[in-house]
Give the backbone structure.
Amino acid sequence: MNNYKTIGIIGGMGPLATYDLAEKILNNTVASCDQDNIPVLIDCNTRIADRTAAILHGGDDPQPEMKKSAKRLETAGADVLMMACNTAHYFYDSICEDISIPVLHMPRLTAQHLLNMGVKKAGILATDGTCQSGVYGDALKEAGIESVYPSGEKQKLIMSLIYDHVKAGIMDFSDLDIDGIIAEMQEKGAETLILGCTELPVAFDLIGKTALPTVDPTVVLARAAVSFAGAPLKEIQK
């Protein structure tokens, strides 16, 4: 029987990304039997309103349902929480107000990871809401790292990749100029790409190796959660 702390995932943003995060927690934990793994609670709350629509277009407020999930997970015994959505970190402080356990901050953890790698300029691929809210730009600036964003035309392709493809379960990306997006980011001086939406690592796993290296914040978050729980980390990220 292990004494690991219990991880809680505020999920449903989106469902596929939620379980992708849970799988990455599993894949980054050294375990030889069931009992060597970390207890994980998942609240896949698909009632949470779209974060980008709320931030940019006056859509329904996602915070009430996010707070319900956080409270349910705390009551169920979680020792630490995390959100399986990058854009949701715009509401981070609000979520923390009603609970007494810590919430891991994916953009700040990612910025620290890039700082440790020696990155000076990073490209941000994310939703319009994440880009315009500054959740990554602010975290990178605090770490002394310059941010690079796609042009308006290329950003539309990123949004289509996220919403019209991965969220819709359509995994054929042949209609999207992914190489063009990456080439533009190279021209702007990006040393690496932050896959700053939880649907993007799912897509890039299928796309395969690209001209620029990528960083999956979900893996960074998962590994931070494993460490917080007190479990041994696998040396190789998956």
Summary: The chain has two domains: 7-105+219-229, 107-216. The longest helix spans residues 152-166. The domain at 7-105+219-229 is CATH 3.40.50.1860 (Rossmann fold).
